[in-house]
Amino acid sequence: MIYRLKRIAVSAGLIGYCGLGWILMEEDYFTRGLENSTIQQAIHLGLTGLLVLGVILWKGHALERGIARLSALPAREAIAPFVATFGVFLTMVSYPRSQAVLNGIAWGLMESTRPFVQQMFLTGALVGIAVLMVLCLETFVRGLSLKVQRVVFGSRRNRFLATSALLVFLATNAVSSFQFRHLPILPEEVGYLFQARIFSDGGIYAEAPLLAEFFAFGNIIMSDKWFLPAPPGFPLLLAVGLLVGAPWIVNPIFAAASCVLLFLCARKMYGEDIARGSAILMILSPFILFLLSLYLPYSPLIFFHLLGVYLLTKGVEGGIRSSFFLSGLSFGGGVLIDPLITFAVVFPWILYLAVFFWRRRTGLSCAGALMIGVVLALCLFYLYGFAVGRNWPVFDPSFGSGYHAGFFAFPFMDSIRETAQRLLYGMVNLNNRLHYVGIYLLGWPVFSLIFAAVPFALALKNRWDYLLLGSVLSLCLVFLFFFHENSAFGPRYYCAAGPFLLILVARGIDVAPSLWSRLTGREDLDLSRLFLSILIFLCIAFNLGYFLPSRLRLYNVSSLIHKQLPSPLQQHVEAARADNAIVFINDFPFRMAYGAGFWLNEPSLAGNVIYARDLGEDNQLLMQQYPGRKYYLYTAMSDSFQEMVLVRNFRAASTASP
């Protein structure tokens, strides 16, 4: 009884200490006014050291016994947990920002301690709560856990799949509708929607307007042809949505289908329980749900990747040529959406298939069936490129006119030193992005990528673990050499690796009690699973109760782009009852101000309302080209909307003026 009370007291103390530390850091108590001060960061490190020292003193003998048991294992199995933990720990503790390139990696590591310590405090508090619940409410918690497991893992498969897909569809639609109002808020979204309008009108490109400078936006090409330099796959899908009057529904449909495919892939690889866990994690992932709600290509891209992987696993299992052919078509669909990301994700599977085909008699025919599907997509990709007069190295909406995939401009960088600096920045940026993925993927205070590393710390890993991890690492390697950080809404380039990480996390959660038993030498797997289920429940509650609402507030209120645009512009147009009009948009200082109207333009510029950039006195030139219309000026800075007057013979007057 005394021992039990002692453990309860220790757990309560852990909750109080860690909870207070997290609250103080959340309120910026330590760092107010001196966020980057070395002294303040040293305080954070000291608190972390005190916490770690307390754990060692409290559980020192248990740690010693765990290390002794590991040392008795074969060298390969003994070192695996340490290697996996060390790799994840480096990503978790190192949170350098771009200043680290200028001021040194050491400064970046010191500056990184605040979010790391904050995570440590919150994780410690949740662990203490979980232990306290096991000690004081074991019977109640065990009964509740069994009921939840019965609902999640005991329901019929078809009902579970239908419910999961419906929840993903409703969640992404809700975010798109209530958070973003079905409107584009990023320049890439505007470009995709504009190209989709060109496709929906039956063309591949539009004719550039005479006064092109009034309609210049982002990286949209305006020479003799007017188009977005991006692969055609995603704009084609959006064009279908435009034809039915609902482009916003395209991504939620693919998101729901991707949830079903995620379940099927995980079930093929690991079984029913991990498949259901993966689907639930996708429903609860803020990172994936936010990005799949935007007019960005990640939803259909994930769909085609998962479909290709599922058909490929079926082909490997049964040697069915049709499965390989359909898998090639699926990966080809990914190529038509984003060839760089698709190549990065599929590359480990290509290596695996090369070995697989080499060892099979029917390998050549299966490989041929796979390649036919991929080659068909590549032919369509290059035909479209030739039709618009572009080639692949600059065939992406994020690239500038002088860059391609990598750090080299045309002709090349001025010096090797500049290339090395950019590579160093790429390494810092990669670490930064992985840290965000670990937090944003599930919104947990516990670093979620730790669970993805658990299978590699045990002798339970198989070929699917290596292939899933290989896809993630391959994508990371590609964007290590990518010049654009692209940090809006988190590291969204890594969204394509999200489903593979979710499967690995679900598998890690499933086998984590086995790792605990190995470290402690205990066989009470039921108690370990109960504790882990409580901890996961607390993490989910933290995500739904704190992290997700904070992201919603951030994107809805704090974002200047979304605060100012696009809703005020549309409200002004409707209030003025603008008909047969031209709206000039002064986009200073908001880059997306003109994009809020540009995406509504018809490529032929024959719509009822035309949106153009404000070019000052030169606006009269466009007015003269479109006589008989009403003219308005919208100023984003002051949120003002006023009517303009056409000045006759403007060009002659401006020429005569001194």
TrEMBL record:
Membrane topology: Multi-pass membrane protein
Superkingdom: Bacteria
Gene Ontology terms, MF aspect: pentosyltransferase activity
InterPro entries xref list: LipidA_mod_glycosyltrf_83, RgtA/B/C-like
Glycosyltransferase RgtA/B/C/D-like domain boundaries: 249-381
Main location group: membrane
GO cellular component terms, semicolon-separated: plasma membrane
One BP term from GO: lipopolysaccharide biosynthetic process
Subcellular location(s) per record: Cell membrane
A Pfam family annotated for this UniProt entry: PMT_2
Record field: transmembrane: 7-25, 37-58, 78-96, 116-140, 160-180, 236-266, 287-312, 324-357, 364-387, 437-460, 466-484, 491-509, 529-548
Keywords of the record: Cell membrane, Glycosyltransferase, Membrane, Transferase, Transmembrane, Transmembrane helix
Name of this protein: Glycosyltransferase RgtA/B/C/D-like domain-containing protein
